[in-house]
Amino acid sequence: MKKFAGLLFILGGICLSCTNTVKTEDGDTESAPIKIDISKEGKDAGFPLFEYDSTHVFPTTRDLDVPEDGAGLPDGRLVVADDTDGLHLIEKDGSHRIFGKMKEKGYKEGGARGVFLEDNNKFLLVSCVYSGKIFRINIETEDTEMIYQHSYGVNNVYRDKKGSIWFSQSSNNPNGTSEALDDAFATPIPTGAVYMLKEGRKDNEEMEAKLVADSLYFANGITMDKDEEHLFVAEFRIDRILRFKIDREKDTLSEKQHYAFVLSPDNLETDENGNLWLASLIQNKILAIDKDDQSIHNVFSAPSPDNSKKQLEWVLKTHLGESIIDIGEPEMWKPLNNPLTGVFWSHDRSTVYFTGLGNALLRYDYDSEIEILD
User: Fold this and answer.
1) Any idea which GO molecular function terms this record carries (predicted)?
2) Closest CA to 209 of 159, 149, 253, 158
3) What is the CATH number of the domain that holds 235?
């Protein structure tokens, strides 16, 4: 069941994308971002800039199990995805334990990917990329419910303030399988999608997912802007982030836009100013995208000669149509121990955490009062 997580160490899925403006069959315009510049350092635009060293590893025991995503709870504790148990609670001292009762409700080892704290701060959502299940956990009692099972795996999940749940499907891998998921990861295949589960069902009525975007190349991270007028989704396999306008009356997405081009974009989050943050897995970077001009800024980078070499080799082989499976090696992630997948904040926004496919988080003090410079 850990085949997919293992592939993330072997594969990176880089494919450079064109920036032409085109019209799709349904009449939507796909436009290039206003500005693309990932060479800028975060501090040049008022964003923080963090550097890697081992003192920021948390917990120091390095005994988490693939904490790909997480959330900060109001009491200062953290929850992170756990490959074996589904979800773990991390205390302030770094000790941790199983949180919720996901195994009792059908979670099987492997597949926990998305972790989302609902707006009421009372419930958590956890998605499973293998089984297609979405679990809802009561934070106070830890009671757990499997609220929906999709026909295919569910990568990431988001619940808006109106109560509707949105989730990404990376590929059409049937429940309990990973072959189609692995294929879409290795080679760009447009089997990704975004679905919405509408709030307002009657008691005991099964939730029904509505397809709102399809033909995506490994749909990954998903989030919304501060006013929840737009939805963002990362197309991991072809290095772009899409933005859609949300039509609340029709429950549809429109005005598809190529919001940014970033190598291997994974999980997405928005900061307190409405800027989009994300992990670029193959680059060992956390990036921030300015909401005003869409310029891209490094906020964390852990470079190495091996990583730079592998990025170039990856791009070359992808464009030549050659296999990229044989170029993966542990050295390419150094000085990190594993690929980065995402970012989340403590509930009071005093600390930022970077997640990954390893056994620990990276933890940094965070100043949310930094102003963006003109």
Assistant:
1) hydrolase activity
2) 149
3) 2.120.10.30
